[in-house]
Amino acid sequence: MNEFADAASGGLTPTELENVLRKVGASRYHNRHPLHHKMTSGTLSKGQLQAWALNRYCYQSVIPRKDAMIIARAEDPAFRAEWRKRIEDHDGTDGWNGGIARWVKLATGLGLGEALVISERAALPATRFAVGAYLSYCTNRTLLEAVASSLTELFSPTIISERVPAMLAKYDYINDDTLSYFTARPAQAARDADFALAYVLEHADSAEKQQAVIDALVFKCDVLWAMLDALEQAYGEHGHIPPGAFDPERER
User: Which of 67, 154, 211, 252 measures 20 to 30 Å from 188, CA to CA?
Assistant: First the structure.
């Protein structure tokens, strides 16, 4: 059930719209997922963490591509100038000295081969479908909806503040260098979320547009949640790893 399906039916003030968007994150962001709780409690095996890092790479690698699609559709040069910072954050100056490269460093620090991670060939089918759906959404829906889908970054600093200290404390093979991806992300996410939220609050100027941006954030939360569902299904206690997907026992 989508409890936010008619949240904007009567029209909302900008403050009311922001409150609804924050409620979406409070109830649907993936820091509430059982797999996240297992990660922060220290109960995941190394193989499970490897599977998480490998599959999450698919999402990390598509971020600059979806941002490029958003930029291509934006007519305002000031918007494009601001939004392209996101691509620079992930691609760096040469394609391999930004956030994506740091995620590869995280994955290889967990013992995965770099080529295996970058190829994405061992990712779960559900991961690839979820990531593809996100790219398609940002390509084919309105610019306003695409921007609104990025508002999960409002809640990103929270999950990082839960994840990083717990991983350092609970897994003796993980260190600060392994998790260097997360060093810059809270500040980057806060900057990006502030810009996207201001854009959404300004341009969602009708009940119909307000509902569209709420639905966009719900959709994005569902994408992230579905990725963790897939990991739990495949690598949980009674998991079934799909043919061709990463198998910790085989890789070991």
Answer: 211
